[in-house]
UniProtKB/TrEMBL annotation:
Keyword Signal annotated: yes
Keyword Signal annotated: yes
Protein name: Cupin type-2 domain-containing protein
Residue span(s) of domain Cupin type-2: 53-115
PANTHER family found in the cross-reference section: CUPIN DOMAIN PROTEIN (AFU_ORTHOLOGUE AFUA_3G13620)
The species this protein was found in: Flavobacterium bizetiae
Keywords for this protein: Signal
Source taxon at top rank: Bacteria
Lineage of the organism: Bacteria, Pseudomonadati, Bacteroidota, Flavobacteriia, Flavobacteriales
């Protein structure tokens, strides 16, 4: 009986420990939906496609990919910063190419939702994203 109480207390403690980080992730206002992933005819390469939704006034911090990223803005407007280059703001229907390994960020500075379609041509078996520390 005592052992069950101890286990129950440990579970409650673990839930409390991890709940804040999960809540923060949900509050970030950026949602990624993976759409498709396929091997390419180029050995060691794959294509990954995702829809990324940004709530108003949200950002996704500096990160890079182990390959190229092609962005198509579906809705709203997003500002992209690629390393030390001048930021560029794209509206629905506009595109952007991000070279492999370049750290970049995306920001929605508007009062409306914004959405991008991201297509990655990346090294197979590598993490899709590396966050800058």
């Amino acid at each position: 009986m005592k052992t069950n109480k101890i286990y129950a207390m440990m579970i409650v403690g673990l839930i409390a420990l991890f709940a804040p980080s999960n809540a923060q992730a949900q509050k970030s206002g950026v949602k990624r939906t993976d759409l498709q992933k396929h091997d390419l005819s180029i050995p060691g390469k794959e294509m990954v496609q995702a829809r990324i939704d940004f709530d108003a006034h949200t950002s996704f911090g500096k990160h890079a990919h182990p390959g190229e990223e092609i962005i198509y803005v579906l809705e709203g407007a997003l500002e992209y910063q690629i390393e030390d280059e001048t930021p560029v703001t794209l509206k629905a229907g506009e595109v952007l190419f991000i070279p492999a390994g370049k750290f970049h960020s995306a920001n929605n500075h508007t009062n409306a939702k914004a959405t991008e379609l991201a297509t990655y041509i990346v090294e197979k078996g590598q993490p899709i994203m590396i966050m800058k520390k």
